[in-house]
Amino acid sequence: xxxxxxxxxxxxxxxxxxxxxxxxxxxxxxxxxxxxxxxxxxxxxxxxxxxxxxxxxxxxxxxxxxxxxxxxxxxxxxxxxxxxxxxxxxxxxxxxxxxxxxxxxxxxxxxxxxxxxxxxxxxxxxxxxxxx
Length: 132
Hints:
- By secondary structure, the chain is mostly beta strands.
- The chain is 7% helix and 50% strand.
- The protein starts with a strand and ends with a strand.
């Protein structure tokens, strides 16, 4: 149960709106850039919001959004290579750890044993995902 103000709302009663990737009007290119029929996205806030909304479930990658504590939207999208990209990294000064900052804003540990090269690009396997 989720509390909103003084009213209680049952999470299981949330309406779920699902858009299949065939009907999505945007996609992610092989370099982590969002596009629609008008071209590459230009507005940083929209780009950041899209990246931070990426989730994965049994049906694939989608953008996830919860609205008004009553609606969950999942828009599955096409991507040319992978949906996950390293956008930055953090080197821990007090250890040898290198942490990768993904386009989703998730921070994960670099695992050198999981690095591989494919089609002249560097990737890391991570929990069933492929990160570029």
